Amino acid sequence: MRPSFFFSAYRQLKNPTSRLKGQIFNARFRMKNLELNRLKTQLLFAQDAANQLDASLDQSQIKKMIPHRAPFLMVDNVELINLELRLIQATRWIDPKDPVFEGHFPNNPIYPGVLQQESMFQTALILMYFLLNETVVPPLEEQVTNAVGTRIYDVFHLSAVRPDDLMTIRCCIAEYDSLVATAIVQIAVNQQIVTVGKGEFFVF
Fold it and tell me: Per its UniProt record, what Gene3D superfamilies does this chain match (predicted)?
């Protein structure tokens, strides 16, 4: 055992503050895992979420709020918004003619997980627009909210997404300020949960 490692471990054992910090970190880590594990089998929120707003926003309105454009605009419609609970529900139809299926994979087409994650991020960014502007009304003119992903805590791909599937993307902004937001996002196809993830992004 290296001396530096030994003395580092010894200081942690003798320092209650270090032990306590470690216990808090481990507890938070377990809570995050429990949170995502629950969402592998349980919808993030019910269709009749309290105080929901039927949004019915299409891509022409979405493009006024986020900077993404075809072929990398990965959200088709926004169906529900709830600012009080920081919730949003959106959809993305998987076009069988998408050229990605020519290589992923021939004779076994599966929509890539990384593109699912992009749909999740864009849905979260749309919700951030409404939260930061404290409104559920889409802008009449372009008023884009920019962001970059900074951290993915965990993502679980539970089942394959196939051509012609309709992804329902449910998102909750767990915490945010004017710069950083943490989102919990879930994708379902025909009410079957296929992907769950939690990540962080920087808003500017």
Answer: Hotdog Thioesterase
